[in-house]
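Chapter summary example: a protein plus zinc ion.
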Amino acid sequence: MEDYIVRATAADDTVRAFAIRSTNLTAEAREIHHTFPVVTAALGRLLSAGAMMGSMMKGENDKLTLQMKGDGPIAQMTVTADSHGNVKGFPANPSVDIPLKRAGKLDVGGAIGKGIFTVIMDLGLKEPYNGQVEIQTGEIGDDLAYYFTVSEQTPSAVGLGVMVDTDSSVKHAGGFIIQMMPDVAEETIEALEAKLSGADPVTTMMDKGMSPEDILEYYLKDLGLKITEKQPVRYHCGCSKEKVAGALATISTDDLKDLINDGEEIEVKCYFCNSAYKFSTAELEEMIESR
Ligand SMILES: [Zn+2]
């Protein structure tokens, strides 16, 4: 089954909604970064959030970055997404092993800890939009809902989940975002709140065979759900030797000269996909000359 995002509206366009199946891309992230289960869950949730928020952007070259910086053992996670269904990310520490919160429940909040959640949107304007909120629970869904409500003044319900199997593989990953537009009616909010309070977690729904469409149907059927778009989504880096060379620009000329004097080619790895790019001493010398 493929990963994809659906967009929808309900209640005469006073509600907009997104849902994602992100099982494959979360599995790919796990493979690239060799994440332990709790990090697989944390990164998968943030990737799902990033992919859905990426699909909210309209511009061809718009770019979204989500960053969670906490005092928990993961320390930091970064996810970037575009408006075409491409998403990627990495954790600062992929090898986190902490006790379960309760039977079968990975402690994502404990692995993230307290800190700052940052959203950066580069919409091609002079300055990128930059929103920051304090991490609420570190469970990511809660933090995203808090961000939308406080920073974008858009009350939102967010569900994000990753079900990690006993062999540490990704069984299900997905999520939804349901947002209230400014002219939403009180009874719409109440109807939605009633649905939310009795709902299973996203991954339980997926385990029952529910698709992203089914999940939105569950919440919004009675409110006149209209699915408006379906978009494929994937883990995709798109790095190149040129882009990685940009990272070398932060190394001082003296340090580069030291590397050259060592006489060996150097290898630079992309944080997002672990691709390795080699730079010969001749290429490093060229870099110094072009400064
Ligand atoms: Zn890469």
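Key point: Residues 237, 239, 270, 272-273, 275 surround zinc ion (CB under 6 Å).
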